[in-house]
Amino acid sequence: MQVLKNQIITLRALEPEDLDFLFSTENNSDFWEVSSTQTPFSKFILKKYLANAQQDIYEARQLRLIIMNTYTNENVGFIDLFDFNPQHQRAGVGILILKEYQNKGFASEALKMITEYAFSSLNLHQVYANIPADNKNSLALFKKSKFTKIGSQKDWILSDGSFKDVHLYQLIN
């Protein structure tokens, strides 16, 4: 895969050198609600994951990219295509921006870049996102990015002892 880059961000494949960044991010319990994670990952498991990260999206059915600040070369987050289904030409999209880099335009740029890539290079017809109803930043991001809310899943995720609704957003090419 080519590197996706503009003046603000670079989307790039995972490298073995990303182990510490992946370890600290995946083991940050603040992100577990949206990733459906329940237990920490060991560095051993993440090394194995990185060793297999070179798999083609058609084989792995997912693609995780590092979002990097083009100007400083700092890793600011991840963006994922998941549940990739070439038969029905769709994939889910998920994005995580570290707190200190939020509200700086990185998420908007990454979402724009990955959807353009999905439509032009992967020939997808649609991308979708499942967003907890109380995640105001993500809801605003996807609305701003021309995604349409197509429904809600009631009591879909359990978080801190109570259930939350999740909204489904879709962008059709």
Could you explain the architecture of this structure?
By secondary structure, this protein is an alpha+beta fold. It has helices at residues 19-26, 32-35, 43-52, 57-60, 106-120, 136-144; strands spanning 4-5, 9-13, 63-69, 75-85, 90-97, 126-132, 148-159, 162-172. Strands 1-2-3-4-5-6-8-7 form an 8-stranded mixed beta sheet. β4 (75-85) and β5 (90-97) form a beta hairpin. α1 (19-26) packs across α3. The radius of gyration is 16 Å and the shape is globular.
List keywords for this structure.
single chain; 173 residues; alpha+beta; Aminopeptidase; eight-stranded mixed sheet; globular
How many strands, what sense, and barrel or not for the largest sheet?
Answer: 8 strands, mixed
CATH superfamily: Gcn5-related N-acetyltransferase (GNAT)
Rg result: 16 Å
Widest sheet, order of strands = 1-2-3-4-5-6-8-7
> Can you tell me the CATH class?
Alpha Beta
Strand content: 35-45%
- Bulk shape: globular
Helical residue percent band: 25-40%
* Number of helical stretches of at least 4 residues: 6
Overall pLDDT score: 87
Known CATH architecture = 3-Layer(aba) Sandwich
Tally of strands: 8
The SSE order reads EEHHHHEEEHEHEE
Structural class: alpha+beta
Low-confidence stretches: none
Q: Give the CATH topology.
A: Aminopeptidase
